[in-house]
Fold each of these.
Amino acid sequence: ASRATAGVRRLKAYDPGHDLVALRERFGELALVELGSNENPYGASPAARGAILDELHALHRYPDPRGGVLKRALAEKHGVDACRIVLGNGSHELLMQLAQVFAGPGDEVVFSQFGFAVFALATQAAGASACVVPALGVDDPMPLGHDLDAIAAAITPATKLVYVANPNNPTGTWFARERFARFMAAVPPDVIVVMDEAYAEMADAAAQTDARPLLEQHANLVITRTFSKGYALAGMRVGYAMAAPELVAVMERVRESFNVNGPALAACAAALGDEAHLAWSCERNAEQRVALSEALRSRGLRVPPSQTNFVLVELGERTSKIEAALLERGVVLRPMRGYGLPTYSRITIGTRDENRRLLAALDEVLA
Ligand code: PMP
């Protein structure tokens, strides 16, 4: 380890929170209520599944290194030119590459406290310095959310990159595009702003979180999205970034030539063609988000508002004990100890049946 760079030496390997393979064996896959990883329980579009099967004859071939078909489908969906799109092995990979490309030793990267965990990881791996901006307070209408004014004020001449997530994980909080437009106007044009929109498809239209209309105006804006959440293709590992063609061209230089595999490219292109499935699963999620938030609040628990497929819930001093007791009952949540929020748990919004089983177990544990 001593041979690794200073940034890498301080890194910890990803901790999924639980050994899910062992838990599935212990409880049986159907009995286990997996609400720890913000996965979409409604599953991928049947068209995406079919597209993967159609790719099986070509497993001995390398995939299209340009991902042309998928890029064209994305370009059409978003109304942008394909030269504004770069594909990643999950948006996680793109978030890492953005720091690798734009920030090095001596440079600063700014992001919010309780911002998506990969922001800190990417910054450290690149050897840059993290400037962590305090989050909004617990009594703010967006408890623990991004304080955009403070983030803009934290930018110095050494700042190369700013990461924001909208909506954010693990807080679930968001800000409106109008607010973000004012933020962008305050950021110097030589500072790159990465807007992580992993949960974009799951946010209500009324929340107006979508930053796409700002892309044309701001050559320093990068929007990342993923097929892992709304499209329920987390296992395929595909994300993409939209940005000015010059930025995309630089990103294209560092990515591995075949970073998105053939079945994944085919599945995502097919998923884009099935808008009804996307809408159906996001509607189910939004319904359950309201129902689960209300059910938790009616038990006297504090739940910050969310526009995602998870909620953060304050369980207080007994959080670890409650989490352990739920796990004994086959209910998996994501502990927030390692995220600086030890009195909170993050609960992925499941199907109606999963949420009912979660609440029943919680009632037993809290009784
Ligand atoms: N951004 C946010 C805010 C996320 O919550 C996640 C997944 N948990 C990602 C990015 C990465 O997703 P993926 O690599 O699957 O695209």
Amino acid sequence: MKFFLDTADLAEIEEAASWGALAGVTTNPSLYAKIGGKLDDFHNHMKRICDIVGPDCPVSAESVAMTRDEIVADGRKLAEIAPNIVVKIPTMVEGLAATHTLAAEGIPVNMTLCFSVPQALLAARAGARYISPFIGRFDDISEDGLEQVGNIVTAINNYDFTANTANGEQVEIIAASVRSANHVTQCALMGADIATVPFGVLKKMVQHPLTDRGLDSFMKDWEKVANA
Ligand code: E4P
């Protein structure tokens, strides 16, 4: 499983990148608003993220257009920001049509706000490079977000979607709307390719109380050695 950071916060991205386990970044309009982002600085901000993570890490930048022609125009402009930009497009009819056009032009698309197997299969057929099923928001309406991710992984891997990728890899499933380290565990066991996680969850993924306890006892015993 690869890990993406789900944020538009440059300091968080810099810190996570320094840990050596960051494979990409996803953003959305809410995350950009959360950091006080301004409309006319949006493309520059996405460029700054691309520069931090480097050319091998995909950075999802979301289109807020609602018609296929506008999404395609938006997507083409976003793709000009950097070679590692992935255009994030909501799962809807206009989004599928735009994905079909952009994918044919070699522009990778992350189809977002995906909540069902049929949506994921349509996204893959339309040419999406990544598909993002949401866990937390599904749980929020008393559905089982993890079960849905598992179903989507199984359904997508029942078929060959390697034509969607430049290097002949299968389309990748990004587990999104991740709220806990346990979500990451369960998604890894189900074979999700990527988990995109908020920085708070990434920090929790490093931690374990037994690690803290073990470290504490090692430090105390080493003090005895030093004072012996
Ligand atoms: C990722 O691509 C999504 O934008 C994100 O994971 C949504 O997470 P949320 O449901 O916690 O806002």
Amino acid sequence: MQDGTGVTEPISGAVPGARTLRGVNQTFIMCKPDAVERGLVGEIISRIERKGFRIVRMDLRTPDRALAEAHYEEHREKPFFGELVDFLTRGPVVAMIVEGPDDQTFSIMRTLIGKTRVEDAQPGSIRGDFATTTNENLVHGSDGAESAAREIALWFPA
Ligand code: DAT
Ligand code: MG
């Protein structure tokens, strides 16, 4: 939400590189291949917009392995990493930059998406309403300002 002043300088203490403006925060959101395959992109985008967030960039593309591996870099050592990269590269995804209010953007968006483990994802959330597995869980959202800056730069290099 804009604060009405039209001021757009970075908030002091903001993560370097984060596209953080006064009153606005950008996060990286992605409808994963299962969402595209199942025809749930409209449903997901609709929930994001109805919540009051604004989509400012959007692109349908099939990521190559290098991009998928870089995106999930933090999970490189996990046993499910290979499967995760296979999944993300199997078809088109919808990559988006989404704007929301202040620092709450990340937590609000993560609540809208639902918890990672399928058994924890609450009904009412995207994963809670539509996913039945942890590995194919429809949507990705940055978990904080630092990840958002990294992921936006990765998917939408300037
Ligand atoms: P999130 O997507 O909620 O940020 P994460 O960053 O911990 O969750 O994991 C990235 C993705 O990896 C997640 O969306 C689904 C998959 N994943 C996580 N834990 C898993 C597990 N134990 N088995 C299989 N896939 C898993
Ligand atoms: Mg994550």
